[in-house]
Amino acid sequence: MSSVAKVLVLDDEANLRKVLAAMLRREGYDVTVAADGEQGLAEFQKNGADIVVTDLVMPKVGGMEVLSAIKAANPDVPVIIITAHGTVDSAVEAIKAGAFDYITKPFDQPELNAVIAKAAKAHESNRRSVRPDSKARAAIIGESPQIQDVYKIIDKVADTPSTVLITGESGTGKELIATALHGASSRRDKPFIKINCAAIPHDLIESELFGHERGAFTGAVTSKPGRFELADGGTLFLDEIGEIPVEMQVKLLRALQESEFERVGGIKTTRVDVRLVAATNKDLQAEIEAGRFRKDLYYRLAVVPIGLPALRERRSDIPMLAKYFVEKYNRRLNKKIEGIADDAMVLLQAYNWPGNIRELENLIERVLLFADGPLITAKDLPEPVRQGGGAQANSLASSSVVEAPTGETGLKDIIRMKAAELEKDLITKALEETGGNVTRAAKLLQISRKSLQTKMKEFGLRDIAPEGKEEGKDEGSGKDESSDE
């Protein structure tokens, strides 16, 4: 954890609250307690929390209502259910409704510590990630040809049982695609269970996936279903699939092929109906050659492969993404930034974005915190973006050789010239993509048509868009009906 996680504990048993709080504080967590669900939700609304641990059965407001309220307020906060042996089935239903995990009474400290640590890691990961919107494909932002291709695949395969393997660099939105696949399928009202394979210790992967019986290993004080069981009828998303150890890959392959498995320490075979979506930022072909990933599992996963482009490969989507994040953080931070100035947008599109969409979102949030407005300008951007990415390879550096400053030509002048070159290139490509239609090209570039016409005149690009190609142009009279006021 990058900072101390805040844990909110809700339980109507005073002794249990004290024991839980003491155990968690010894592990270094910042703990707040509440005597019931009503008090707990008031505390959460006032001061927030990184993790919520709540009893299932409480007076006034029960654990399921707490879960629903927390998920509505902040879906990224993991909610852990405390349950007695007789209500394990209810706890499983809670997980299907979005709870992170559950622990049973009586519980031992290692079990509690393991669940809380896993929740803390998941919350930290969610906090840094781009959180998917609940509107399935509508939440995917972009109109570039690369993203249009992804849309087409989602439309064709979402409502099928076929396994999907999503590949792409970290921060490109793989979980967003998995959510869209589930949301656009007939399984949308069934569980969508997510697990980050990189966040689970190797010796616990099998138990996480397939569950375990009581006494199967040290600390297994009760039987527990795995993620495959919890996802029955719905979708199971295995993120960072390349992190699963080779010995577990055989069992995963069998579960995918036969739709059945046994819990750890059990003999009963369980059958499930699960649609699997996997994701990785690793090159699985290279992993296969290195002996770290099974070829047969790869082919079973990659029935439908979806490769997500890096943000630097879809630069025309940056204005749309940046606008979305400005609006998002205006609401969240109570700011009133109106947008991004042209000089800043040119630099955003020139930067290489090694962290992809996640990096762009984090940058916009940081800039909004300090910007005085009304527009974000070049001076508001961090130095690596203003300087074209520093030592990182970016489009400015790769498009042509940047010579060292000589004579009266300083670094700022070189950057200004290279930014102008990139701007001209982006405008040219937008006009070519739209067949010379100025109105549509301006929309694609997220600038006004008047600004685009000025830039076209400045760069000598008027011949790319004959007058008859402009939307709203009355060819007979020569009158431009859609000119900016």
From TrEMBL:
The keyword Nucleotide-binding applies. It comes from the Bacteria. The keyword Transcription regulation applies. Residues 6-120 form the Response regulatory domain. GO terms for molecular function: ATP binding; sequence-specific DNA binding. One of its GO terms (biological process) is regulation of DNA-templated transcription. Residues 140-369 form the Sigma-54 factor interaction domain. Keywords: Activator, ATP-binding, Cytoplasm, DNA-binding, Nucleotide-binding, Phosphoprotein, Transcription, Transcription regulation, Two-component regulatory system. PROSITE patterns: RESPONSE_REGULATORY, SIGMA54_INTERACT_1, SIGMA54_INTERACT_2, SIGMA54_INTERACT_3, SIGMA54_INTERACT_4. GO terms for cellular component: cytoplasm. It is found in: Cytoplasm. This is Response regulator of zinc sigma-54-dependent two-component system. The modification 4-aspartylphosphate is found at residue 55. Residues 458-485 are annotated as: Disordered.
